[in-house]
Design goal:
Structural class: mainly beta
Strand content: 35-45%
Distance between the termini: 21 Å
Radius of gyration: 34 Å
Number of strands: 64
Helix content: 10-25%
Strand order of the largest sheet: 43-44-45-48-47-46
Length: 982
């Protein structure tokens, strides 16, 4: 009886490990999450009330956020849709954040303390126009003031309490482009000022109370207007003529329009060229940009102009800020390299400087793009000023008292492309002191884990265990680990800046604003396109660092000059850059490397010529050996044309150099524009590893068709191009194709009647999964197509295999007509999908999981077995043993399958998977406005013990078993002795 009781206690002790699961102490071991907001467009400070001071910003990523002015942390954040672009932002009633978005058609009020939406109004209009938001300055919480909004050609008055539309006025029919709204609070009148036909100045006087048009004045200016109007005072505006050489002062008091012209050459001696009027709102003056200098011109009461000063090298000017006793000030930024000079001047007296200081930026961040200023009261009761600065690399800085108080790397909210780099190998040599320290920490850690297992640990002990686990994981070391979990994520942002993120904790190892992607005389509007691994040295070559190739263009058109930049992956140094070069339409990484491990790349230009990189004789020699075997394809989305090409010979000497090659068209597939429109393509990763070609199914063997030259392509009927629901099911068709890109043969074609895009697809091994919308069922669907090679069917005959008549050794040609068989199935799916990816492992042995980016900005892991086309309602016993799941019409979504758990990757754009050295594990990186990284084991960690494995409990179990064996042996001996004495 005693033995049974002891064994029962032992079983309870062992099983207690699964019930005592303090998962909070595992937070941060395998994943990390970072929040960003993007490049700031507008900022409004809220510092007048007691409590924590904050600044409310809107960004280019359609984010509204409240930031702590002390540390730069996010108080709250709201991310709007991709098409819901924020136009204007302001603070009303001292407690609401008012935003205008979607071209002036949506007005919202958000609660300032917590960011919850209070009300929302939809403002309908007829014609696209600029968006204007006016919140009167005398807002009070005790009365219902109006918010004035102009957008889509209509002027609306909206209640500030509940968002009700009080009245609206159609100005689109008048043919006016409204530039400014001026509210005269004492008279209750509103001026709507604008330009009609680029030469006609229009002024509308409207009653704010009821929207009645009181007066309309119009006057033509013979020289015409260019650019925007600048409102200097409540009754005067300044504009530039169409030639950019004359400043025009426009007076509109009482609706009476008067013009006064002044040549800029009369104000500034030696003026030449074209001037630009800045949109900054300066009290009583305007700023005119001439080359790299700013001309500040004061507008006098009688409408005449006077030059106040000309300041060189001004990068940004803030709007005027009103503070105590009716004083107004504005800030301007001058920059010399990494040195920023901030000057806050009085708008009334130019000689008065409220602030003048210089700040040295710690690292190159480019030029200053925007500046917003705010005042505060110092301890000596004088006024101080702080400046919020937006840099060229999209970072955000707060300057105060001559120093950078905080900065945010918000360029990471606009990642374009991602690649990875291995870390350097750890060098041998460990000190004795380090070994002794590690031994002490090991003993201490296991003692604490034992206390936690026996439920004797205090909260402080649990915190220590969590901290020690984070340290013992060595996740943040700058060397490779045995399992391949530690890597560098090299990311390229829209600003042309490279970041290296450590996969262990997400910290920035280095960052570099690339010189090739900055505005210059040769490249005015550079933009990044792709990242490619350029040099990947063998792990024995410790003296060589890996490098990456950054590809971009100077403009957005297809024939724009290209940019190539080569960057060291360990140090972030820009080794070399080529700009401008030939146009770039496609970059083809080739499966060849030279003697120093540089990978060959063929870059295709707009004329179809291929340019080989690196530009060395060795690379040309390697490429010449494979000439005629380099195939590529192009998809013309606009002209519905799919074409295959092959590189044949060098370009003619009069056209280009020895590194240029001509290509010829092999085949083309034309989709009739009146019946089909290309909307999506997908292909396999070049680096994907397939463990085996054979797939055992029940009592048969199927051979996967694993050619890397297969392209998935989806088309829809022209009527189905619009949004979901814009067409009836009878007029909507979705067609999918599997095309061999070497021969142009269509291996498989399938149609879905009554279905519509958008289509998101992922291609892996011999299968493709794609997501679309079923108009008939009013639900989303996911379909799977698997393709098998029938030419290998004879290999299943054992007799032929013994007699040597099998075709395993038969040569395989890409031009041979493949004998393929396809299996397909469709399932309903609950969620809208933003992107789809698939897990990838080192050897391709581990089961696959689909990683689905949902409309809720989360990542869902779905086992590929649920998308098996061989699923049936009643699978046979053999199929059950194989792992076939019974057929259901919908794909299951389990809460435990969310990779991101309770977190959201706001603005999710893409999911990248990277294989680790450990076969069971894949690394997952998801990015949008936020960043998220984690490790996944689709088939569990069958080849290793987890990091949270309880070694202390294992040791305790072994000791208990040894004691139990010893005790039971003693009891057995005593019992046997007693029986002998009987």
């Amino acid at each position: 009886m005693a033995i049974r009781a002891f064994l029962l206690f032992l079983i309870l002790l062992v099983s207690s490990y699964t019930t005592f699961a303090l998962y909070e102490d595992q937070v941060g071991l395998m994943d990390w999450h970072q929040q960003y907001i993007g490049k700031v467009k507008k900022a409004v400070f809220q510092t007048h009330k007691a409590g924590r001071k904050r600044v409310v910003v809107s960004t280019e990523e359609n984010v509204i956020a409240a930031l702590d002015l002390r540390h730069g942390e996010i108080f709250w954040r709201q991310v709007l849709g991709v098409n819901d672009v924020i136009d204007e932002i302001d603070i009303a009633l001292g407690k609401y954040v008012v935003t205008l978005s979607s071209g002036g058609s949506i007005l919202r009020a958000w609660n300032l303390p917590d960011g919850q939406m209070v009300w929302e109004s939809f403002l309908l209009g007829s014609n696209p126009s600029r968006s204007l938001l006016l919140t009167p300055a005398n807002f009070g919480a005790d009365k219902d003031n109006v918010i004035l909004v102009y957008g889509s050609g209509y002027l609306h008055a909206v209640s500030s309490i509940d968002g009700d539309i009080l009245w609206k006025k159609d100005l689109a029919q008048k043919g006016i482009d409204v530039h400014h709204l001026v509210h005269l609070e004492e008279s209750g009148m509103l001026y709507a000022l604008g330009v009609g036909d680029r030469s006609q100045f229009e002024a509308y006087v409207i009653n704010v109370g009821n929207g009645e048009l009181l007066k309309h004045s119009s006057m033509e200016f013979p020289g015409g207007f260019s650019g925007d109007l600048s409102l200097s005072t409540s009754d005067k505006a300044v504009a530039l003529d169409s030639s950019g050489s004359i400043l025009v002062t426009i007076s509109f008091v009482g609706g009476e329009i008067k013009f006064q012209e002044v040549h800029i050459s009369d104000l500034l001696q030696g003026f030449s060229g074209v001037a630009v009027l800045l949109p900054s709102k300066l009290a009583g003056m305007v700023a005119v940009k001439i080359n790299r200098s700013l001309l500040f011109v004061k507008v006098k009461d009688e409408g005449t102009l006077e030059v106040v000063d000309r300041v060189p090298h001004v990068e940004a000017v803030s709007d005027s800020l009103s503070f105590a006793e009716g004083q107004t000030a504005f800030g301007l930024i001058q920059q010399d390299g990494g040195k920023i000079r901030l000057t806050v001047k009085s708008s009334d007296d130019w000689k008065t400087h409220f602030l003048k200081e210089s700040i040295e930026v710690d690292q190159p961040r480019g030029l200053v793009h925007k500046v917003f200023i705010n005042n505060y009261i110092r301890t000596d009761r004088t006024y101080g000023f702080r400046a919020l600065i937006v840099m060229e690399d999209h970072s955000l800085l707060l300057l105060q008292q001559g120093a950078v108080v905080w900065y945010r790397e918000d360029g990471l909210a606009s990642i374009i492309d991602v690649t990875t780099s291995e870390l350097p190998v750890e060098k041998a040599g460990v000190s004795v002191a380090k070994v002794e320290h590690n031994l002490f920490e090991w003993l201490k850690g296991h003692l604490l884990k034992l206390k936690a297992t026996l439920m004797l640990a205090t909260p402080d002990d649990v915190a220590v265990v969590q901290r020690m686990r984070l340290q013992s994981a060595e996740k943040s070391k700058m060397t490779r680990d045995h399992n391949g979990f530690r890597k560098l994520l090299i990311v390229l942002t829209r600003a042309g800046k490279l970041f290296a993120l450590h996969t262990g904790d997400g910290r920035i190892v280095w960052s570099r604003l690339l010189n090739a992607f900055r505005n210059s005389g040769t490249c005015e509007s550079p933009r990044g396109l792709k990242l490619h691994q350029w040099q990947v040295p063998h792990h024995h070559a410790l003296d060589e660092n890996p490098s990456v190739l950054v590809v971009g263009t100077c403009r957005h058109n297809s024939d724009a000059s290209g940019i190539l930049s080569f960057v060291d992956a360990y140090r972030g140094e820009e080794l070399n850059y080529l700009a401008p070069v030939h146009s770039i339409t496609q970059v083809i990484p080739l499966p060849f490397t030279d003697s120093i491990e540089q990978r060959l790349h063929l870059i295709i230009d707009a004329e179809g010529y291929g340019h080989l990189y690196p530009r060395t004789l060795e690379a040309v020699g390697i490429f010449q050996k494979e000439l005629g075997n380099i195939y590529w394809y192009s998809v013309g989305v606009n002209n519905n044309l799919l074409k295959g090409h092959v590189v044949k010979k060098n370009c003619k000497p009069e056209i280009a150099d020895d590194y240029c090659f001509e290509s010829i068209d092999l085949w083309s597939v034309i989709f009739p524009s009146d019946s089909e429109k290309v909307i999506a393509t997908s292909t396999r990763k070049l680096s994907e590893v397939v463990h085996t070609q054979a797939k055992v199914v029940a009592e048969d063997v199927l051979y996967k068709y694993i050619s890397k030259n297969v392209l998935f392509l989806a088309t829809v009927t022209p009527k189905a191009i619009g949004d979901i629901g814009s067409v009836i099911p009878e007029d909507s068709w979705l067609f999918v194709y599997l095309v061999d890109t070497i021969t142009g043969r269509v291996l498989h074609r399938m149609s879905h009647h009554g279905c519509q895009g958008p289509v998101h697809a992922v291609f892996s091994e011999n299968w493709v999964v794609y997501h679309y919308f079923n108009l008939r069922a009013h639900r989303y669907e996911m379909s799977v197509v698997e393709i098998y090679d029938q030419s290998r069917a004879d290999n299943k005959d054992v007799l032929k295999l013994v007699l040597g008549k099998h075709n395993l050794s038969a040569p395989v040609s890409s031009y041979s007509r493949p004998e393929v068989m396809t299996k397909s199935q469709s399932y309903f799916f609950t969620h809208t999908v933003k992107t789809i990816a698939v897990t990838s492992t080192a050897k391709g042995i581990t089961s696959k999981q689909l990683l689905i980016g949902t409309i809720g900005d989360q990542v869902l892991a779905l086992d590929k077995r649920f998308l098996d086309p061989r699923r049936t309602l009643n699978p046979t016993q053999a199929e059950k043993e194989e792992g076939i799941i019974p057929l259901t019409d919908s794909l299951p979504i389990m809460p435990q399958a969310y990779v991101t758990h309770a977190l959201k990757v706001e603005g999710l754009k893409s999911i990248i998977t990277i294989p680790a050295k450990l076969e069971s594990t894949t690394l997952v990186f998801a990015h949008g406005v936020d960043l998220f990284f984690t490790r996944l084991a689709p088939s569990k960690t069958y080849d290793s013990l987890t990091e949270d494995f309880n070694y202390a409990l294992l040791l305790l179990t072994i000791v208990a078993l040894v004691i139990a064996i010893f005790v039971t042996w003693i009891w057995s001996e005593r019992k046997e002795l007693q029986e002998k004495w009987r």
